[in-house]
Each structure stands twice: as structure tokens, then as C-alpha cells.
């Protein structure tokens, strides 16, 4: 469970970092090879580790309000937002709603783990 908390907090921080990058996307252009690709690869590696820990935890502990499908959707949302935070033509409302959905699931996991 310590690993799950560690990864969940890391992903939560990266989610906030993506929001900041999204707001800065108009001010500065990102280079694909020096900015975008390394960032997305780091997010993907972190998200894979988080998903593995979270799915194992859901199967083992059977939390009341968190299900495997939420973990999978959050994983996909993380991957999508990692790319979209650099795109100047990304839809603002969609990005922000996805950001909130990611944060909601992550905060619920933290609350559930801490209450056990």
C-alpha cells in the first residue's frame, strides 16, 4: 500500500503539472523531441506503475467506491492529457474536465487507503 500511495501522490503532482503546462501552451512552443516526448514517456512510465499497483490493490482490498474500470479510465485520461497539455488547439473544457476526473479518482484512492 505504501507503493500505491507513493505512485498516487506522484501522479497527482504530475496531473497538476500538466494543468500548468496546459495554461502555458500558448505562451511558449514546445519542441517535440526535447519537451513533449520525454515528458509523455515519464508520465507513461509512472502511469503504468500506478495502474499496476492500483489494480492489485482494488482486487485485494475491494474498496467500496473505487473499481478497476475507474483505474483504467484514469490511466487513459493521464495519457491523453499528457499529450494534450502541449497542444494549442486542444479543447479547454475537455482538458479541464479530464483533469478534474483524474484528480477525483486519485484523491479517492488516497482517502480510501488512509482510512484502512
Helix and strand layout, with pairings?
Blueprint: H1 2-24, H2 32-61, H3 68-84, H4 92-115
Describe this structure in words.
The chain is mostly helical. It has a single domain (2-115), classed as Four Helix Bundle (Hemerythrin (Met), subunit A), CATH 1.20.120.440. Helix content is 81%, strand content 0%. The chain has four helices and no strands. The chain has helices at residues 2-24, 32-61, 68-84, 92-115. Helix 1 runs antiparallel to helix 2 (32-61). The longest helix is centred in the middle third of the chain and has 30 residues, at 32-61. InterPro entries: YppE-like, YppE-like_sf. This is YppE family protein. It comes from Ectobacillus antri.
Q: What attributes does this structure have?
A:
Four Helix Bundle (Hemerythrin (Met), subunit A), mainly alpha, 116 residues, 4 helices, 81% helix, single chain
The gist of it:
The protein is an all-alpha fold and 116 residues long. Helices cover 81% and strands 0% of the residues.
Q: N-to-C SSE series?
A: HHHH
How many β strands by DSSP?
0
Helix content: over 70%
Q: What is the CATH homology-level superfamily?
A: YppE-like
- Uncertain runs with pLDDT below 50, 5 residues or more? none
Organism: Ectobacillus antri
Pfam families: DUF1798
Protein name: YppE family protein
InterPro entries: YppE-like, YppE-like_sf
Amino acid at each position: 500500500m505504501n507503493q500505491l500511495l507513493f505512485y498516487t501522490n506522484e501522479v497527482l503532482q504530475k496531473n497538476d503539472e500538466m494543468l500548468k503546462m496546459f495554461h502555458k501552451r500558448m505562451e511558449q512552443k514546445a519542441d517535440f523531441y526535447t519537451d513533449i516526448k520525454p515528458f509523455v514517456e515519464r508520465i507513461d512510465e509512472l502511469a503504468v506503475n500506478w495502474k499496476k499497483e492500483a489494480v492489485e490493490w482494488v482486487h485485494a482490498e475491494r474498496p467500496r467506491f473505487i473499481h478497476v474500470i475507474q483505474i483504467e479510465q484514469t490511466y487513459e485520461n493521464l495519457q491523453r492529457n499528457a499529450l494534450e497539455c502541449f497542444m494549442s488547439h486542444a479543447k479547454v473544457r475537455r482538458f479541464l474536465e479530464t483533469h478534474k476526473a483524474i484528480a477525483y479518482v486519485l484523491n479517492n484512492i488516497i482517502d480510501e487507503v488512509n482510512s484502512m
